[in-house]
Amino acid sequence: MTTHQNGTISIEISDFLLNCFVSWKFWLSLPLSFLFLLAMGANGVLLVTIQLEASLHEPMYYLLSILSLLDIVLCLTVIPKVLAIFWFDLRSISFSACFIQMYIMNCFLGMESCTFMVMAYDRYVAICHPLRYSSIITDQFVARAAMFILARNALLTMFIPILSAQLHYCGKNIIENCICANLSVSKLSCDNVFLNRIYQLTIAWTLLGSDLVLIFLSYILILRAILRLKAKGAAAKALSTCGSHFILILFFSTILLVFVFTHMAKKKVSPDIPILLNVLHHVIPAALNPIVYGVRTQEIKEGIRKLLRRVVERCK
Protein backbone atom coordinates (compact mmCIF):
# COMPACT_ATOMS: atom_id res chain seq x y z
CA MET A 1 0.00 0.00 0.00
CA THR A 2 1.40 3.39 -1.03
CA THR A 3 0.38 6.92 0.01
CA HIS A 4 0.89 9.53 -2.74
CA GLN A 5 1.69 13.22 -2.25
CA ASN A 6 -1.90 14.18 -3.03
CA GLY A 7 -3.09 12.05 -0.13
CA THR A 8 -4.55 9.19 -2.18
CA ILE A 9 -3.77 5.61 -1.22
CA SER A 10 -3.05 2.93 -3.83
CA ILE A 11 -2.51 -0.83 -3.49
CA GLU A 12 0.65 -2.23 -5.07
CA ILE A 13 -0.04 -5.22 -7.32
CA SER A 14 2.34 -8.08 -8.07
CA ASP A 15 0.74 -9.70 -11.11
CA PHE A 16 -1.79 -9.16 -13.88
CA LEU A 17 -4.98 -10.97 -14.86
CA LEU A 18 -5.63 -11.52 -18.57
CA ASN A 19 -9.32 -11.16 -19.43
CA CYS A 20 -10.66 -12.08 -22.88
CA PHE A 21 -13.53 -13.76 -24.75
CA VAL A 22 -15.43 -14.74 -21.62
CA SER A 23 -18.56 -15.98 -23.40
CA TRP A 24 -17.07 -17.91 -26.32
CA LYS A 25 -13.74 -19.26 -25.06
CA PHE A 26 -14.58 -22.92 -25.74
CA TRP A 27 -15.52 -22.42 -29.39
CA LEU A 28 -12.42 -20.34 -30.04
CA SER A 29 -10.14 -22.88 -28.38
CA LEU A 30 -10.90 -25.57 -30.97
CA PRO A 31 -9.73 -23.75 -34.17
CA LEU A 32 -6.95 -22.06 -32.21
CA SER A 33 -5.63 -25.44 -31.03
CA PHE A 34 -5.77 -26.78 -34.58
CA LEU A 35 -3.91 -23.76 -35.97
CA PHE A 36 -1.29 -24.01 -33.22
CA LEU A 37 -0.61 -27.72 -33.87
CA LEU A 38 -0.58 -27.07 -37.62
CA ALA A 39 1.89 -24.19 -37.22
CA MET A 40 4.24 -26.16 -34.97
CA GLY A 41 4.08 -29.33 -37.07
CA ALA A 42 4.39 -27.68 -40.49
CA ASN A 43 7.26 -25.40 -39.46
CA GLY A 44 9.01 -28.28 -37.71
CA VAL A 45 8.77 -30.47 -40.82
CA LEU A 46 10.02 -27.60 -43.01
CA LEU A 47 13.03 -26.97 -40.74
CA VAL A 48 13.98 -30.67 -40.63
CA THR A 49 13.54 -31.00 -44.40
CA ILE A 50 15.80 -28.02 -45.14
CA GLN A 51 18.35 -29.27 -42.61
CA LEU A 52 18.54 -32.83 -44.00
CA GLU A 53 18.14 -32.17 -47.74
CA ALA A 54 21.46 -31.00 -49.22
CA SER A 55 19.79 -29.56 -52.33
CA LEU A 56 17.95 -27.06 -50.10
CA HIS A 57 21.13 -25.65 -48.57
CA GLU A 58 20.74 -22.39 -50.48
CA PRO A 59 20.24 -18.77 -49.33
CA MET A 60 16.53 -18.65 -50.18
CA TYR A 61 15.80 -21.70 -48.03
CA TYR A 62 18.01 -20.42 -45.21
CA LEU A 63 15.82 -17.31 -45.13
CA LEU A 64 12.74 -19.54 -45.06
CA SER A 65 14.29 -21.41 -42.10
CA ILE A 66 14.69 -18.11 -40.25
CA LEU A 67 11.02 -17.34 -40.93
CA SER A 68 9.96 -20.75 -39.58
CA LEU A 69 12.02 -20.29 -36.41
CA LEU A 70 10.42 -16.89 -35.80
CA ASP A 71 6.95 -18.36 -36.34
CA ILE A 72 7.61 -21.17 -33.85
CA VAL A 73 8.84 -18.76 -31.17
CA LEU A 74 5.87 -16.41 -31.66
CA CYS A 75 3.38 -19.28 -31.41
CA LEU A 76 5.00 -20.67 -28.27
CA THR A 77 5.08 -17.22 -26.69
CA VAL A 78 1.38 -16.46 -27.20
CA ILE A 79 -0.85 -19.45 -27.94
CA PRO A 80 -0.17 -21.83 -24.98
CA LYS A 81 -1.03 -19.07 -22.50
CA VAL A 82 -4.21 -18.18 -24.42
CA LEU A 83 -5.27 -21.84 -24.44
CA ALA A 84 -4.49 -22.11 -20.71
CA ILE A 85 -6.89 -19.20 -20.15
CA PHE A 86 -9.57 -20.83 -22.32
CA TRP A 87 -9.31 -24.33 -20.81
CA PHE A 88 -8.23 -23.84 -17.19
CA ASP A 89 -8.99 -20.16 -16.52
CA LEU A 90 -5.29 -19.56 -15.72
CA ARG A 91 -5.55 -15.83 -16.23
CA SER A 92 -2.79 -14.76 -13.84
CA ILE A 93 0.58 -13.76 -15.28
CA SER A 94 3.50 -12.36 -13.31
CA PHE A 95 5.04 -8.96 -14.03
CA SER A 96 8.25 -10.47 -15.38
CA ALA A 97 6.46 -13.02 -17.59
CA CYS A 98 4.16 -10.31 -18.95
CA PHE A 99 6.98 -7.97 -19.93
CA ILE A 100 9.04 -10.83 -21.39
CA GLN A 101 6.06 -11.83 -23.52
CA MET A 102 5.62 -8.19 -24.55
CA TYR A 103 9.26 -7.97 -25.63
CA ILE A 104 9.25 -11.22 -27.60
CA MET A 105 6.03 -10.32 -29.43
CA ASN A 106 7.25 -6.88 -30.48
CA CYS A 107 10.77 -8.04 -31.29
CA PHE A 108 9.87 -11.18 -33.25
CA LEU A 109 7.04 -9.59 -35.22
CA GLY A 110 9.54 -6.92 -36.27
CA MET A 111 12.05 -9.64 -37.15
CA GLU A 112 9.45 -11.47 -39.22
CA SER A 113 8.59 -8.28 -41.12
CA CYS A 114 12.30 -7.63 -41.72
CA THR A 115 12.78 -11.21 -42.94
CA PHE A 116 10.01 -10.71 -45.50
CA MET A 117 11.81 -7.57 -46.64
CA VAL A 118 15.09 -9.47 -47.12
CA MET A 119 13.22 -12.24 -48.96
CA ALA A 120 11.68 -9.61 -51.25
CA TYR A 121 15.18 -8.34 -52.03
CA ASP A 122 16.22 -11.95 -52.75
CA ARG A 123 13.36 -12.30 -55.26
CA TYR A 124 14.21 -8.89 -56.78
CA VAL A 125 17.79 -9.95 -57.46
CA ALA A 126 16.64 -13.36 -58.77
CA ILE A 127 14.22 -11.80 -61.29
CA CYS A 128 15.87 -8.49 -62.18
CA HIS A 129 19.56 -9.51 -62.01
CA PRO A 130 19.60 -13.31 -62.54
CA LEU A 131 23.19 -13.44 -63.82
CA ARG A 132 24.47 -11.73 -60.66
CA TYR A 133 22.24 -13.64 -58.24
CA SER A 134 24.82 -16.21 -57.11
CA SER A 135 27.41 -13.49 -56.47
CA ILE A 136 25.03 -11.19 -54.54
CA ILE A 137 22.82 -13.61 -52.58
CA THR A 138 25.41 -15.78 -50.85
CA ASP A 139 25.62 -17.61 -47.53
CA GLN A 140 27.57 -14.61 -46.20
CA PHE A 141 24.73 -12.32 -47.30
CA VAL A 142 22.22 -14.45 -45.35
CA ALA A 143 24.47 -14.40 -42.26
CA ARG A 144 24.81 -10.60 -42.41
CA ALA A 145 21.07 -10.23 -43.05
CA ALA A 146 20.29 -12.44 -40.02
CA MET A 147 22.58 -10.32 -37.83
CA PHE A 148 20.89 -7.14 -39.09
CA ILE A 149 17.40 -8.57 -38.50
CA LEU A 150 18.32 -9.57 -34.94
CA ALA A 151 20.21 -6.40 -34.00
CA ARG A 152 17.72 -3.91 -35.46
CA ASN A 153 14.66 -5.36 -33.80
CA ALA A 154 16.23 -6.52 -30.53
CA LEU A 155 17.63 -3.06 -29.82
CA LEU A 156 14.76 -0.86 -31.01
CA THR A 157 11.95 -2.88 -29.39
CA MET A 158 13.84 -3.36 -26.11
CA PHE A 159 12.60 -0.03 -24.74
CA ILE A 160 8.91 -0.93 -25.16
CA PRO A 161 8.81 -3.36 -22.18
CA ILE A 162 11.39 -1.28 -20.30
CA LEU A 163 9.17 1.81 -20.46
CA SER A 164 6.13 -0.25 -19.45
CA ALA A 165 7.98 -1.91 -16.57
CA GLN A 166 9.02 1.50 -15.21
CA LEU A 167 5.40 2.61 -14.86
CA HIS A 168 3.68 2.55 -11.47
CA TYR A 169 0.80 0.05 -11.36
CA CYS A 170 -1.76 0.45 -8.60
CA GLY A 171 -5.21 -0.88 -7.89
CA LYS A 172 -6.53 -2.26 -11.19
CA ASN A 173 -4.60 -5.25 -12.58
CA ILE A 174 -7.02 -6.74 -15.14
CA ILE A 175 -5.66 -6.58 -18.70
CA GLU A 176 -8.53 -6.49 -21.21
CA ASN A 177 -6.64 -8.69 -23.62
CA CYS A 178 -5.47 -12.30 -24.08
CA ILE A 179 -1.84 -11.19 -24.27
CA CYS A 180 0.43 -8.58 -22.71
CA ALA A 181 0.12 -6.02 -25.47
CA ASN A 182 1.91 -2.82 -24.50
CA LEU A 183 -1.06 -0.47 -24.91
CA SER A 184 -3.37 -2.82 -23.00
CA VAL A 185 -0.92 -3.08 -20.09
CA SER A 186 0.16 0.56 -19.90
CA LYS A 187 -3.41 1.86 -19.59
CA LEU A 188 -3.53 0.21 -16.13
CA SER A 189 -0.78 2.49 -14.87
CA CYS A 190 -1.35 5.45 -12.55
CA ASP A 191 1.44 7.35 -14.35
CA ASN A 192 1.48 9.39 -17.54
CA VAL A 193 1.90 6.90 -20.42
CA PHE A 194 2.31 9.43 -23.24
CA LEU A 195 6.01 8.59 -23.86
CA ASN A 196 5.26 4.87 -23.75
CA ARG A 197 2.50 5.11 -26.35
CA ILE A 198 4.40 7.48 -28.63
CA TYR A 199 7.48 5.21 -28.63
CA GLN A 200 5.35 2.11 -29.35
CA LEU A 201 3.55 3.75 -32.28
CA THR A 202 6.73 5.33 -33.67
CA ILE A 203 8.63 2.05 -33.61
CA ALA A 204 5.71 0.10 -35.09
CA TRP A 205 5.18 2.48 -38.00
CA THR A 206 8.93 2.97 -38.57
CA LEU A 207 9.89 -0.71 -38.60
CA LEU A 208 6.82 -2.36 -40.11
CA GLY A 209 5.99 0.62 -42.32
CA SER A 210 9.46 0.90 -43.84
CA ASP A 211 9.58 -2.87 -44.42
CA LEU A 212 6.24 -2.85 -46.24
CA VAL A 213 7.28 0.10 -48.40
CA LEU A 214 10.54 -1.64 -49.41
CA ILE A 215 8.71 -4.93 -50.02
CA PHE A 216 6.16 -3.39 -52.36
CA LEU A 217 8.84 -1.30 -54.08
CA SER A 218 10.73 -4.55 -54.76
CA TYR A 219 7.62 -6.12 -56.26
CA ILE A 220 6.90 -3.09 -58.42
CA LEU A 221 10.40 -3.43 -59.88
CA ILE A 222 9.91 -7.20 -60.22
CA LEU A 223 6.59 -6.71 -62.04
CA ARG A 224 8.17 -4.16 -64.37
CA ALA A 225 10.99 -6.59 -65.16
CA ILE A 226 8.52 -9.44 -65.77
CA LEU A 227 6.49 -7.37 -68.22
CA ARG A 228 9.66 -6.79 -70.24
CA LEU A 229 10.40 -10.50 -70.60
CA LYS A 230 9.84 -11.62 -74.19
CA ALA A 231 10.98 -15.25 -74.03
CA LYS A 232 8.11 -17.74 -74.21
CA GLY A 233 7.02 -18.82 -70.72
CA ALA A 234 9.63 -16.61 -69.02
CA ALA A 235 7.04 -14.33 -67.41
CA ALA A 236 5.03 -17.25 -66.03
CA LYS A 237 8.17 -18.85 -64.61
CA ALA A 238 9.25 -15.58 -63.03
CA LEU A 239 5.83 -15.08 -61.44
CA SER A 240 5.90 -18.64 -60.10
CA THR A 241 9.33 -18.03 -58.61
CA CYS A 242 8.15 -15.17 -56.40
CA GLY A 243 4.46 -16.10 -56.10
CA SER A 244 4.83 -18.05 -52.85
CA HIS A 245 6.65 -15.22 -51.15
CA PHE A 246 4.09 -12.64 -52.24
CA ILE A 247 1.24 -14.79 -50.88
CA LEU A 248 2.99 -15.03 -47.50
CA ILE A 249 3.41 -11.24 -47.38
CA LEU A 250 -0.31 -10.82 -48.13
CA PHE A 251 -1.20 -13.12 -45.21
CA PHE A 252 1.10 -11.22 -42.86
CA SER A 253 0.25 -7.67 -43.92
CA THR A 254 -3.51 -8.16 -44.43
CA ILE A 255 -4.14 -9.38 -40.87
CA LEU A 256 -1.83 -6.68 -39.53
CA LEU A 257 -3.58 -3.88 -41.45
CA VAL A 258 -7.06 -5.14 -40.50
CA PHE A 259 -5.96 -5.21 -36.86
CA VAL A 260 -4.65 -1.63 -37.09
CA PHE A 261 -7.83 -0.29 -38.69
CA THR A 262 -10.17 -2.09 -36.28
CA HIS A 263 -8.12 -0.81 -33.36
CA MET A 264 -8.40 2.74 -34.71
CA ALA A 265 -12.17 2.28 -35.13
CA LYS A 266 -12.65 0.57 -31.77
CA LYS A 267 -15.70 2.70 -30.97
CA LYS A 268 -17.50 1.26 -33.99
CA VAL A 269 -16.57 -2.44 -33.57
CA SER A 270 -16.73 -4.90 -30.71
CA PRO A 271 -13.67 -4.59 -28.41
CA ASP A 272 -13.17 -8.35 -28.82
CA ILE A 273 -12.41 -8.02 -32.55
CA PRO A 274 -9.00 -6.28 -32.26
CA ILE A 275 -8.06 -8.71 -29.48
CA LEU A 276 -9.00 -11.69 -31.64
CA LEU A 277 -7.08 -10.33 -34.64
CA ASN A 278 -4.05 -9.71 -32.45
CA VAL A 279 -4.07 -13.34 -31.30
CA LEU A 280 -4.70 -14.71 -34.80
CA HIS A 281 -1.85 -12.61 -36.21
CA HIS A 282 0.52 -14.74 -34.12
CA VAL A 283 -0.75 -18.08 -35.44
CA ILE A 284 -2.42 -17.83 -38.89
CA PRO A 285 0.68 -16.65 -40.84
CA ALA A 286 2.76 -19.18 -38.87
CA ALA A 287 0.43 -22.00 -39.91
CA LEU A 288 0.14 -20.94 -43.56
CA ASN A 289 3.74 -19.92 -44.33
CA PRO A 290 5.27 -23.44 -44.56
CA ILE A 291 2.17 -24.86 -46.26
CA VAL A 292 2.23 -22.25 -49.03
CA TYR A 293 5.95 -22.81 -49.66
CA GLY A 294 5.51 -26.59 -49.45
CA VAL A 295 2.67 -26.59 -51.97
CA ARG A 296 4.17 -24.09 -54.43
CA THR A 297 7.88 -25.01 -54.31
CA GLN A 298 8.82 -28.21 -56.11
CA GLU A 299 12.19 -28.54 -54.33
CA ILE A 300 10.55 -28.45 -50.90
CA LYS A 301 7.86 -30.94 -51.93
CA GLU A 302 10.54 -33.33 -53.14
CA GLY A 303 12.53 -32.81 -49.94
CA ILE A 304 9.48 -33.64 -47.80
CA ARG A 305 8.86 -36.79 -49.87
CA LYS A 306 12.45 -37.91 -49.23
CA LEU A 307 12.07 -37.18 -45.52
CA LEU A 308 8.86 -39.24 -45.35
CA ARG A 309 10.55 -42.13 -47.21
CA ARG A 310 13.39 -42.08 -44.66
CA VAL A 311 10.92 -42.18 -41.77
CA VAL A 312 8.98 -45.08 -43.35
CA GLU A 313 12.18 -47.04 -44.02
CA ARG A 314 13.35 -46.62 -40.43
CA CYS A 315 9.97 -47.74 -39.08
CA LYS A 316 10.09 -50.99 -41.08
TrEMBL record:
**Name of a matching Pfam family:** 7tm_4
Q: Which InterPro entries match?
A: GPCR_Rhodpsn, GPCR_Rhodpsn_7TM, Olfact_rcpt, OR51/52/56-like
Q: How does it sit in the membrane?
A: Multi-pass membrane protein
> Does the UniProt entry include the keyword Transmembrane helix?
yes
Q: Where in the cell is it found?
A: Membrane
User: The G-protein coupled receptors family 1 profile domain covers which part of the protein?
Assistant: 42-293
Gene Ontology terms, cellular component aspect? plasma membrane
Gene Ontology BP annotations: cellular response to lipid
- PROSITE patterns from the xrefs? G_PROTEIN_RECEP_F1_2
Predominant cellular place of this UniProt entry's protein: membrane
- GO molecular function annotation: G protein-coupled receptor activity; olfactory receptor activity
Keyword Ribosomal protein belongs to the record: no
Keywords, A to Z, come to: G-protein coupled receptor, Membrane, Olfaction, Receptor, Sensory transduction, Transducer, Transmembrane, Transmembrane helix
List residues traversing the bilayer. Answer: 26-49, 61-88, 100-121, 141-163, 203-226, 238-261, 273-295
| Function, in words | Putative odorant or sperm cell receptor.
Task: Please state what the protein is called.
Answer: Olfactory receptor 56A3-like
Organism name? Canis lupus dingo (dingo)
What gene name is given for the protein in this entry? Answer: LOC125753260
